[in-house]
Amino acid sequence: MKFRIFRAPDGQNDGGDPTERPRMGGDILPEVAPAKAGERVEPRLEDAEPAPGPTVVDSPPVGPIKIAARDVSVFYGDKQALYDVSLDIPDKTVTAFIGPSGCGKSTFLRTMNRMNDTISGARVAGRIAMDGEDINDRAVDPVLLRARVGMVFQRPNPFPKSIYENVAYGPKIHGLVTAKSEMDGVVESALKRAGLWEEVADRLQSSAMGLSGGQQQRLVIARAIAVNPEVILMDEPCSALDPIATARIEELIDELRERFCIVIVTHSMAQAARVSQRTAFFHMGRLIETGDTEDIFQNPRERRTLDYITGRFG
Amino acid sequence: MNQHTVKAYGDELNQITAEVARMGGLAEAQVADAIESVARRDIALARAVVDRDLKLDALHRDVEKKAIRLIALRQPVASDLRRTLGAMKMASDLERTGDLAKNIAKRALILAEAEPMQPLTRSIERMGRLVSNRLRDVLDAYTASELDRAMAVWQTDDEVDEHYNALFRELLTYMMGDPRTIGACTHLLFMAKNLERIGDHATNIAETVHYEITGDDIMGERPRALPTAEDEPPTPNLITDPN
């Protein structure tokens, strides 16, 4: 049931008449015209841009690349938040972004499903390609893009509806499933893959808001995978959870990576080390070092990475 | 190296390193004193070496305990993890070094009862000095994080092996010449073997220092002085005709 992110001229793959769609998720927010691919936004002189950092230390991943970012810069108004990030993100792998607060890791994560479009004044320069397709192309519908590139946030954000409706929402608005029996199957399998089925099977019609934080987060993951995405972005998915709920999410991430390309932003270095196979370290809006997680945590090659992972950042 | 943001973490790491350095100083002194007790037939000194070994054992346990605690509470990674594990490995090497020094001192006590064997004990003394110098060098390299110095020790272990092979030959010749010296010579031979092993521990420490600093194992083979046919001692004709 994979669909193309490009708007069909007749709107057929658009999930029906857009005016009838419930206003939720990405389409509730204003759309900002994305920067054209390759277009460079000239930074203003008074931005006092720091001197360009040294070349990124990179040992390239093995295996097929799902997302290829080239020279991606992000500006919030006059302020540049991300400087020329180029990074290959391999498929069926967990890639962790680490770095101190404000280093640009979340900003970069949000470029991958064009969440920055929803922030007024945000501009993205550079090229981000998923399976070779430029996701910032004018013809790309961000709503369809976000169905292929799902996202899980720091705080669980279920809709104030039943557990069933939360999971069924995505497949319904995208017109992936229509028959009730088929939908039951989709909901069940998404909840099972998210490791939540056994806990909620007998109360699918009760409100999602009655679930615990960890359950809500797994419900959100079930909602994301119900539309069969290819990439799942996670922005500190465990920071509001207790250690046991965290462990369950980590176990889930490990299972999900067999089918999805997963990118996770985390402040917990131990979590990055536990769940990811690739790690990218950001600092002050730049990508500093990227490589296999075990190399980054055993013997990083860049001094700033070492200082950060060993807790020496002053 | 920058300070840890959590100062207590850095302090704990430094404490472990300092304790290993202390063990190193003690182990070095034990080796030197054990050799001196052989050379001077000094019973009091030999006893002191035997007694002091307990101190080294206690320090070893303490380093291990502190390292385990640090791993459990601080989860060190990268260079900090190598430093912690390196300290544990080094503490084991130094503890073994202490045991070997103690063994030499115990044999010194026995030899002190027997006839002096001047030229032979002098050979042991020379080898002992070589080995304890190497131990000192590698420990200095550890405390100062000097890779080149550690590598110099690693590369010259064959000097110790050569010394050992020469002493081995000398002792066998002696024993063949005068079977009454076999008892004492056997003790001296074990001493030489102990010194050779202490040299190996110094080499291990050099490898640990290399790993701690670079994160990589040393590549390539260490130069070795294998006993060649030429070096072989004359085969003693031990099986004498019963008739």
Side-by-side strand order of the widest sheet of chain A: 1-11-10-4-9-8-7
In whole angstroms, how far apart are the ends of chain A? 49 Å
Low-confidence stretches of chain B: 236-243
Proportion of residues in β-strands of chain B: under 5%
The end-to-end span of chain B amounts to 75 Å
How much helix is in the residues of chain A? 25-40%
What class, by secondary structure content of chain B? mainly alpha
Helical run tally of chain A? 10
What multimeric state do the chains show?
A: heterodimer
- Main sheet specs of chain B: none
Number of helices of chain B: 7
Polypeptide structure, described:
The complex is a heterodimer of chains A (314) and B (243). Chain A is 29% helix and 22% strand. Chain A is of the alpha/beta class. A seven-stranded mixed beta sheet of chain A has the order 1-11-10-4-9-8-7, with helices on both faces. In chain A, a hairpin with a 2-residue loop joins strand 2 and strand 3. The termini of chain A are far apart. Chain B is an all-alpha fold and 243 residues long. Chain B is 79% helix and 0% strand. Chain B has helices spanning 7-39, 43-74, 78-113, 118-144, 147-155, 157-177, 182-214. In chain B, helix 4 runs antiparallel to helix 6 (157-177). Chain B is elongated, with a radius of gyration of 20 Å. Classes of the chains: A alpha/beta (314), B mainly alpha (243). The A-B interface holds A 269-270, 273, 297-300, 306-307, 309-314 and B 1-6, 9, 75-81, 215-216.
Summarize the structure.
The complex is a heterodimer of chains A (314) and B (243). With 314 residues, chain A is an alpha/beta fold.
Key traits:
heterodimer, A: 314 residues, alpha/beta, 7-stranded mixed sheet, 22% strand, B: 243 residues, mainly alpha, 7 helices, 0% strand
Q: How would the blueprint of this fold be written?
A:
The complex is a heterodimer of chains A (314) and B (243).
Chain A: E1 57-58, E2 65-76, E3 79-90, E4 94-98, H1 105-111, E5 122-130, E6 133-134, H2 142-148, E7 149-152, H3 163-173, H4 180-193, H5 197-200, H6 213-226, E8 231-235, H7 243-256, E9 261-265, H8 269-275, E10 278-283, E11 286-292, H9 293-298, H10 303-309
Parallel strand pairs in A: 1-11, 4-9, 4-10, 7-8, 8-9
Antiparallel strand pairs in A: 2-3, 2-5, 5-6, 10-11
Helix pairs in contact in A: 3-4, 3-6, 4-6, 6-7
Chain B: H1 7-39, H2 43-74, H3 78-113, H4 118-144, H5 147-155, H6 157-177, H7 182-214
